[in-house]
């Protein structure tokens, strides 16, 4: 089995107030299997808070599991690029610094992807549910693909149903095989809002196999002041 199954990249820009929660949620999900994951904290030129120092503290505390990458500010896309460039896992997952993962669901995904990593041809893309977490309103809205994608088995595009007008894959819901992203030369643009769609959809023509794990894994925090959601 490869040393690292999942590389989690966390783009951080002045994220000191909430990045710890994100990082800890990933660590908790891999309890007992920390050797199978790595967390790449990408400090995207933070200047207004302790993000760079926090990133270095985490890396010093957990060498071999967490690494800190510092770069000039290039925007979310450049941070995603940097995470991929420094990753060594079979699969690559982006978790924004104000979001988090569900412990049990992410543990199930790690176990699933570990099985795939041992295959001669690992599955290209894994999909999970995500949840809109409107923390200030105390509301959660799960988003799933149960009526579109067969769950619990490796499939191809011929097995996919028809997406509804409000059903779509987000960066939050996908785990890509990292080498596939490298093979197609995926590079997200600098200083551009919503590179998420580029990240999700550009690789799709190269995806041959996919797997849907029907769990509410990714927790998408909605409502933070200054957050871009359009």
Could you explain the architecture of this structure?
It is a single chain. With 230 residues, the chain is an alpha/beta fold. It is 26% helix and 27% strand. The protein is built from 6 helices and 10 strands. Strands 1, 2, 3, 4, 5, 6, 7, 8, 9 and 10 form a 10-stranded mixed beta sheet that branches. Helix 2 links the parallel strand 2 (37-44) and strand 3 (66-71). Helix 1 packs across helix 4 (103-117).
List keywords for this structure.
230 residues; alpha/beta; 27% strand
Main β-sheet: number of strands, strand sense, barrel status?
10 strands, mixed
Average pLDDT, rounded to a whole number, is 95
Number of strands: 10
The amount of beta strand, in percent, is: 25-35%
User: What's the order of the H and E elements?
Assistant: EHEHEHEEHEEEEHHE
Radius of gyration over C-alpha positions, nearest whole angstrom: 17 Å
* SSE class: alpha/beta
Distance N to C terminus: 41 Å
Number of helices: 6
Summarize the amount of helix as a percent range: 25-40%
Overall 3D form: globular
Stretches where pLDDT is under 50 for at least 5 consecutive residues are none
In short:
This protein is α/β, with parallel strands linked by helices and 230 residues long. It contains 6 helices and 10 strands.
List the helices and strands and how they pair.
Blueprint: E1 6-12, H1 19-29, E2 37-44, H2 51-61, E3 66-71, H3 76-85, E4 91-94, E5 100-101, H4 103-117, E6 125-134, E7 139-143, E8 154-155, E9 174-177, H5 178-183, H6 196-201, E10 210-222
Helix pairs in contact: 1-4
